[in-house]
Amino acid sequence: MKLEEVVALIEDSSIVILATVNGDRPAARPMTLKKVDGRLYFLTEAGSPKVVQLLRNPRCLVYRGLSDGENNGFINLDCMAEETTDPALRKRLYDSAKYASSYWSSPEDPRYVLLRITPESGRVLRPGDESASGVE
pTM for the full model? Predict the structure, then answer.
């Protein structure tokens, strides 16, 4: 399965698990993943543990559970993360996230960090399938 096809399975706003590297251990937490123009982003707080971890090691994993009735599956993406400073994109994502104004005063708030998540590979198990497919 191609990366573009997998990204198409993700809604414009999805709750996912973001796993980062914390020293020699994984660290995982739920996050809201935003999809805009086929690209993936997280809005988060400057200086938070995940941001510090991603600055040290930008490799991360994004996991999204899938379900269709009684059948379950998943999307598991190996990714790279980088901060995005483009003012227009920061504003667009800030405006599209209903929760953003609860955390930051504006798209220019220095505490607001926009992370672009670039999938490199992964696996997908569609609900009802018996085995996972690799992502290329």
Answer: 0.93
